[in-house]
Fold this protein.
Amino acid sequence: MTVLHNKNDSIFRLSLFQEFPTLMHYQSFGGYEALGKAMNECPTKVIDTLTTAGLRGRGGAAFSTGLKMQMVLNNTEQERYIICNADEGEPGTFKDRFIMTHNPFQLLEGMSLAAYAVGAAKGFIYIRHEYPEEQDIMRHSIAAARAAGLLGENILGKGFSFDVEIFSGAGSYLCGEETALLSSMEGKKGRPRVKPPYPTQCGLWGKPTLINNVETLANIPMIISRGGDWYRTLGTPDSPGTKLISLSGDVVERGLYEVPFGITFRQIIDEYGGGIKDGRSIKAVNIGGASGVVVPPWELDCTLEYHSCNERGITIGSGAVFVMDERRSILANVHNRVEFFLHESCGKCTPCREGLRQAGRIIHNLLAGKASMDDVENLERYTRAMQNAAFCGLGQAAGNSLISSLHYFRSEYEAACVVYDQHCKREEITA
Ligand SMILES: Cc1cc2nc3c(=O)[nH]c(=O)nc-3n(C[C@H](O)[C@H](O)[C@H](O)COP(=O)(O)O)c2cc1C
Ligand code: SF4
């Protein structure tokens, strides 16, 4: 089981994500007060408060949550949906499952607040097929909320009706992409659609749909309770609030940590993760999951903030941080990621399908000492073509770890080619 760690001291004043597994427990700590408060006011007040708070999506793209809600609200179509994206397919990420298993009602309250804001009567939680325990917990929690009059018709007697249903995902990484997710919910192949139109304009069954990540929605109750200005006291002006970080790899204390935006990646590793195991040193850190980048230790003083990370080409993504000590092979790590994406690519477009196949072949040959620097140049060319020409976010981001590793760890690629060059020279001499 994942254990959430946060530091409730004067520097790290955090507690957005706590453990309230039952409705009674959640309500005794102020749960559902935000919904009661919001329903006494106009729905646009929720959107205004989230905009003041500066809440941005935690599913990867970091889009403004208030703006997305406003786009749904502006739509003239009255039938609207909200979907909680609980696909959590990014390797090394285990935050959404924590929220669902340890504080399901905070997520449900967040969904109700979002539904109230955009005028949706129906919501879905798209939970990945590999999370049966989370599906059970959410099903029971929905039933408990319904029994308490917190979901269903005329919630808390305020005239607002909203209900939630679980949708079990199809076990595909690509179905986490919002338009592929919509197709899969509509009973079609889970493949991405052309954007625009965006789901806010034409979503589930052609209706305006708000799609948000679990962590994004679970942030909402506290913001509505305490206000947007309070939220801005956490984090930084560019990136207010906190972020759940799934820390894994060669650190002493792997786990899920709630950290304020604005601390450095080095602090995350040293102060939360307890540093590197057995006194070894850091060789590289993968930030943002399989679709994220691989950076050397000197980049770790970058602060966890959307703006500073963007400037340095670092993708915060889902908040996965995987630490590699000096014994790890960068090539083996990147090969693993390329194989993952090759498996998950839907094959619809050539740059992604063929680019990944070629990249996988070349890295395999590099690892076997059977590739030259010409192959490495081709590897870079194919990967850049895939980043630029792929149809959806999977193909556009699949090469991030590869390109960053070529930038920072080119010597490992060159060293692998030396083996091949020596082998060729030996062959020439014996011929
Ligand atoms: C290949 C791919 C996989 C994705 N997987 C997830 C996922 O598992 N969970 C998630 O919340 N967002 C995922 N996203 C991002 C969603 O498309 C979408 O941006 C997000 O759910 C919006 O929620 P937010 O605004 O709260 O971040 C994925 C995107 C891509 C391109
Ligand atoms: S980029 Fe890859 S996953 Fe996306 S549509 Fe093209 S082939 Fe499919």
User: Anything to note?
Assistant: Residues 9-14 have pLDDT under 50 and may be disordered.
